[in-house]
């Protein structure tokens, strides 16, 4: 056997060994079951965690991974038992026992940056404003995996969250609150705007109310800091909620108070917003929590238009833009704006601005007009994707 023939023989042997390993891996009968459960219970990894894998160890399968969905884990185990598949359960249901019961928290700074991974260099996935209650699932070094009221999963560093057990969280939820209603401002160490600043604060921030007088609220941060907030810039939370009375017109009015705010990928506060963070902020300041991303918002509400027939739209409707489906590609929603009437929509693109679908208008937006997909009506439309703060207590029980 010459050298070339021998080398080729070795290559074939290695190739078939690798192929056999790949084939054996693909023959794992649990993969199909795991995939089916994930599709049924956790199709969107942004809001549901189901990271489970099956490892073949000497003919017996070991289920490893974690999930925050006990029903999904139980469904998988029941399915495998019915199929008479032997397995060892090494899955962890979150919250992690290592948290020692401290599975709840409240955002304690004006705006917390929530990351896709536990690192400051990771993508800014979203934000949460002061006073937002969150669930805590696990920790890693100086970071916590949390879930916001809109169910979004992300990581926050310890500087942005006050960690609590159930007892402390219940005390916080039951306390009287104030909500900051001005676009941007500060809290102070004394009842005087010229006194030392305690922190910056943005619209929608919620603080515990200690007392009030004609000019200031005395408030407490989740971490115990005390500060004074001008009565001109905030309201009692209960009063605010009871008197909101959101309308199509208030949605437009709110959106215009945010004109010129810079675009920020992952931003959902008045410091900076991305397109869906902007629409989310508009609705939140009118007492409604809507899904985080444009690709989630598009599945909420009532269909209004998909043919660029804008005469049926009313103020507050959301317009979605992106790539239309083709024979080889799925539809991809990448941008969202809000209709304000007069053939115009307001959106965050570079900055919060107003654009038109009228080809004769000076602010005609040809780029977005040409990638328009559809419009949906969230306001006054019955759907499961929206939390009405007046009906579902989030900040106060």
What this model shows, in words?
- The chain is of the alpha+beta class and 397 residues long.
- It has four domains: 25-94, 2-Layer Sandwich (Histidine-containing Protein, Chain: A); 99-172, SH3 type barrels, CATH 2.30.30.40; 175-240, SH3 Domains (SH3 type barrels), CATH 2.30.30; 248-388, Alpha-Beta Complex (endopeptidase fold (from Nostoc punctiforme)).
- 23% of the residues lie in helices and 36% in strands.
- It is built from nine helices and 27 strands.
- Helix 2 packs antiparallel against helix 3 (70-82) and helix 6 (248-256) crosses helix 7 (275-284).
- The protein is globular, with a radius of gyration of 26 Å.
- 37% of the residues are buried.
- The model is unreliable at 19-26 (pLDDT under 50).
List its salient traits.
Histidine-containing Protein, Chain: A, SH3 type barrels, single chain, globular, 9 helices, 27 strands, alpha+beta, 397 residues, 6-stranded antiparallel beta sheet
Judging from the principal axes of the Cα atoms, what is the shape? globular
Range of helix content: 10-25%
Q: The CATH topology of the largest domain, please?
A: endopeptidase fold (from Nostoc punctiforme)
| Fraction in beta strands | 35-45%
| Uncertain parts | 19-26
- Radius of gyration based on Cα positions: 26 Å
Largest sheet: 6 strands, antiparallel
CATH architecture descriptor name of the largest domain: Alpha-Beta Complex
**What's the level 1 CATH class of the largest domain?**
Alpha Beta
Compute the number of helices. Answer: 9
In the sheet with the most strands, the strands line up as 21-26-22-23-24-25
What structural class results from the helix and strand content?
A: alpha+beta
The whole-number mean of residue pLDDT values reads: 93
Number of domains: 4
Alpha-carbon distance between the termini? 83 Å
CATH superfamily of the largest domain: endopeptidase domain like (from Nostoc punctiforme)
- How many β-strand runs? 27
């Amino acid at each position: 056997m010459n050298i070339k023939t021998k080398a080729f023989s070795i290559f074939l042997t290695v190739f078939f060994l690798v192929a056999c390993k790949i084939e054996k891996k693909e023959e794992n009968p649990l993969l199909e079951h795991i995939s089916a459960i994930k599709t049924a219970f956790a199709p969107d990894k942004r809001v549901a965690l189901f990271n489970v894998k099956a490892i073949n160890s000497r003919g017996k399968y070991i289920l490893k991974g974690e999930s925050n969905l006990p029903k999904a884990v139980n469904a998988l185990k029941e399915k495998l038992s019915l199929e008479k598949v032997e397995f060892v359960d090494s899955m962890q249901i979150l919250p992690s026992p290592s948290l020692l019961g401290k599975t709840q928290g409240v955002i304690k700074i004006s705006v917390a940056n929530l990351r896709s991974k536990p690192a400051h260099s990771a993508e800014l996935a979203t934000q949460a404003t002061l006073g937002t209650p969150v669930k805590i699932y696990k920790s890693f070094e100086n970071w916590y995996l949390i879930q916001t009221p809109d169910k979004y999963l992300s990581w926050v560093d310890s500087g942005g969250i006050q960690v609590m057990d159930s007892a402390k969280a219940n005390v916080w939820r039951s306390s009287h609150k104030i909500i900051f209603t001005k676009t941007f401002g500060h809290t102070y160490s004394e009842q005087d705007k010229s006194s030392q600043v305690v922190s910056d604060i943005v619209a929608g921030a919620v603080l515990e109310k200690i007392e009030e007088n004609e000019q200031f609220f005395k408030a407490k941060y989740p971490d115990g800091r005390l500060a004074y907030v001008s009565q001109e810039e905030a309201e009692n939370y209960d009063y605010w909620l009871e008197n909101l009375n959101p309308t199509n017109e208030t949605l437009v009015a709110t959106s215009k108070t945010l004109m010129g705010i810079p675009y920020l990928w992952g931003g959902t506060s008045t410091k900076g917003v991305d397109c869906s963070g902007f629409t989310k902020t508009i609705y939140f300041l009118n007492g409604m929590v809507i899904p985080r991303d444009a690709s989630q918002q598009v599945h909420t509400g009532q269909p209004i238009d998909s043919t660029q027939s804008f005469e049926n739209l009313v103020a507050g409707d959301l317009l979605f833009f992106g790539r239309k489906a083709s024979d080889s590609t799925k539809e991809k929603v990448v941008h969202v704006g809000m209709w304000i009437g007069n053939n115009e929509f307001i959106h965050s693109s570079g900055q919060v601005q107003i654009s038109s679908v009228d080809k004769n208008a000076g602010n005609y937006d040809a780029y977005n007009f040409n990638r328009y997909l559809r419009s949906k009506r969230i306001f006054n439309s019955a759907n499961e994707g929206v939390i009405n703060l007046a009906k579902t207590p989030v900040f106060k029980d």
